[in-house]
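As described in the Methods, two query proteins were run sequentially through the folding procedure within a single session, without resetting any intermediate state between them. The first query and its resulting structure tokens are shown here.
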Amino acid sequence: MGGVQYLVCLCMLLMTQSRFVYSEIQFIRMHEGDSVVFPCAVEQKNPPPFSVYLKRNWLNPGEVLFMLSQEEYNVHNDHDKTRIHVSGDPSDHSLNVTISELTVSDTDRYYCEFVVNNPVSEDERIPGNTEFVLLVSADAPESVDSRWVETCAEGSVVLPCLPAYGEGLAVEGVILKRQRGRAPVEVLYNSKHHHNNNGPPSSSQYPAKRFLLSSVPGPSSITYNLTLQQLQPEDSGLYSCQLLQRGRPDNSTRLGTRVFFVSVQGTQCLCSSSTTLLYALSAAVVILLLLLGFVGIYVCRCSEKPRPQVSVYEEMHAFNQKRVPHNQEVQYENKNSFLKKSCPENHYESPTGSSRPRNES
């Protein structure tokens, strides 16, 4: 049973760590000049937090602000002092951080970090319940479908490719574009150039083997999907895959109407895939327990001593020995009764069985 206990302990450890590390991620798309509110919250604790940080951890990692309980907050960048406002207090386990007059440079991944006093060791730092991915676009507001996709290092993601000019036109290929932070939009993959061996016109020089184009027949048309393989943390960014249609230009420097924010986690890959690992370990434990149960049943059955087999002759002989005395007794009684009844009664016979002489008158 040592192996079973080890697997159970490993499952519990992975479940505990996955609950501690993983938090909800909220994707926010805004435009320049807008305002955004980050609601920071943490689970109830005793004692309550005495301070809080707002940090960035993707394009420009660092502190945005720091606030002590019942005191004024301090903004790290002087330029942002007029744009950032805090309502609430960290001791209440929640507060709101508002950033106004957004610019493209505000695009990043934000999270709150609460600090709780620990009298016996170093203060405990607890991340907020939600992380915020903020995308600030310089374009005019339009109908854009933004989605969040997360994977681990050396992982892959599947991006659907949509038509740029509507349905009904012949499809000649697909084009994949990416934007990282404030960098311009770059073309990572163009199937027309790939098949012509011209290579994609991209500064990133993506190897063609990292792309896999597939098509799936649908009820009204064919759906094209592009798979990105062997991703690394530096590949995180905004991706858009569009169909190349006959008679339409493909030299646009803007992303499509459906944008995917691909976040590639490096060292946190184990935590993101812990669910699959837990299912596999649970299945292994169940199979091992079933095998141990079958082995135990088999051993118990083998340990039982088999009863000696008696031949048919011995059974019949024992049966006859039990029945013969009873039959003889019955036959003997019947025979005596027959003899007694067959003899006529003799009135001259004495009770003792001897004959008595007659008295002559």
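Immediately afterward, the second query was submitted; its sequence and tokens are:
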Amino acid sequence: MSNTQATVTAYLAAQKKTTNKELAAEWTLLEELHNEKLWNELTIKLVTFVRHESLQDETALLQLYQNFLSTFETKINPYGLIQILEVVVDNISDKKEAIDFLEKVKDKVKICDEAVWYLQVMQGNLYLTNLNDLNSTKKIIEELRDVLEEAGNVTPVHGKYYMLASQYYRRVGKHSDYYRCGLQFLGCSLDDYPRDQWAQQAFFLGLAALLGDGVYNIGELLAHPILESLKGTENEWLVELLKAFNTGDINKFNDMKKIWSKIPDLAAQEVKLRQKISLLCLMEMTFKRSAIERAISFTDIAQETKLPAKEVELLIMKALALDLVRGEIDQVAGVVNMSWVQPRVLNRNQIAGMASTLDTWMGAITNMEKLMENRAAEILTN
């Protein structure tokens, strides 16, 4: 018997002596799977076994790794190995040692890209949550960003990465990046996300949608079921405020000021919020108009946005520069001729408005078709 096998045998024999019969049976099963070299079954069993309450101790888990798992870690599925080691690392008290531990494992799983990505995300979480090392966290996020985007398909690591990235961006106050990564996380891993944390995540995402630079597609968040978690909570008002922004409803924004101004981040950015909702109001005005009614007067814009007349042209120029709308300004006539508005996720009322516009177009086409039929002979003879 080799020294390695002797170590494993002695370790398992000691563990099976536990007075907990259920736990002893678990150790016996692990021994059988190991002796029969059923590596896949052993991996699946260990993924759940390491979470047993009796093992949630740094010493116990490290002994499990050193005396048992390390003897066959290169024979099992690399991704499964990282799933097992995630529990081990969580219980290591010195998080710098935990990062070093993972670094040593990296070469052992390098044949599996997903396992390496998973390991890097774990290191990023340790840097961010436990060591407050923002630079190291940022480096990992930037290294993985392009790799994951080019992966070709969504892997289980994508959700973990987007959660790490969103937490980092929230920590450093990059609202738009947090919003983008937060939505991507929800698109990957919502089912795995604890229900009791939905309301907090929804609140943070709502604030990021309002405060984030370049975030004008608020309908994307409004369509997500996570906002339902705010119903019945003290932050339920946020959903109504998001709806006001999505439709550019400045009257509602003003009416709700006594509520949203209690949030320090929103109160401090009131000027920025007013500019954003004014831009969204202009987009909504453009969207609601038919193709033949896209000449919008400065007076109408000032009335809808509640802006002084002298600031209307600057608002239009801002919207054009951000490519939220396209068109031409006629300063002499005091109008802007809109030709396009940036696509957004629409709510039911906006979709109904679009349907009405399509009905109007179809009616115009039908009338033109009938006119052509009635005057076909005249056109052909001439």
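Residues 21 and 27 are 10 Å apart (CA to CA). We note this only descriptively and draw no conclusion about the first query from it.
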